[in-house]
Structures are given as C-alpha cells and as structure tokens.
Design a protein that fits this description.
This protein is mainly β and 119 residues long. Helix content is 0%, strand content 55%.
Length: 119
C-alpha cells in the first residue's frame, strides 16, 4: 500500500512563509508527476501546483503564482511547496498527490496538513 505523508503545516500570520513537505511510505512506486491541492472549509478541493518530472515543468494556480514554489526529488517521490507572502485566503488543508501516468488523474493522495493564516 502506498501512502503519502505531508508535514510542515501550521498557524502563521499574513505575510509569513511556510514550507510543506510530502514523502511516500509503504510500497515503492514510480511517479510521473506530483502536485499539491487544497481544500478550504465549505469549498471544493482545488489545484495549487504541479511538477511533471519528465518535462521538468511546473504549473500553478493563478491565485498562488509568484508566491508559491513547488520542487521535489523524482527519485525519492518527494515534493515540497514553499509558500511565501501567505494570505488568510490560503487557509486550507493541503494535500499532496502523485500521478503514475503521464496524464490524467492523480493516483495516490496524502491525508493532508492544515495551514492556517491569520490576518
């Protein structure tokens, strides 16, 4: 069984920074891409950022462009999310995910880590 474990969440003030980490445990696998998603209270889960290993490319939601940076280690299936200039609207549970195919839906998901930004 594959598990993804997020860490690094917490309570910060607006303008602060946080770095989230995600690492796998359990059965090994090969990912083609990894990403971060978030879900705020009362809202649907939304895409935040993605890194595609083969193309070496990254994508971001417009709401986080210029503030968040995704990075990672393909060989270790680990991914990070550096979050700067945090805003109260960034408050959410953040989930990491891994995709084992070149495209399509993400295969594995973490349990999430809470990020709370106070104003």
């Amino acid at each position: 069984q594959v598990q993804l474990v997020e860490s690094g969440g917490g309570l910060v003030q607006a303008g602060d920074s946080l770095k989230l980490s995600c690492a796998p445990s359990g059965r090994t696998f090969t990912s083609r891409a990894m990403g971060w998603f978030r879900q705020a209270p009362g809202k649907e889960r939304e895409f935040v950022a993605r890194i595609s290993w083969g193309a070496g490319s990254t994508d971001y939601a417009d709401s986080v462009k210029g503030r968040f940076t995704i990075s990672g280690d393909n060989a270790k299936n680990t991914v990070y999310l550096q979050m700067n200039s945090l805003k109260p609207e960034d408050t959410a549970v953040y989930y990491c995910a891994a995709r084992t195919r070149p495209a399509g839906s993400f295969t594995y998901w973490g349990q999430g880590t809470q990020v709370t930004v106070s104003s």
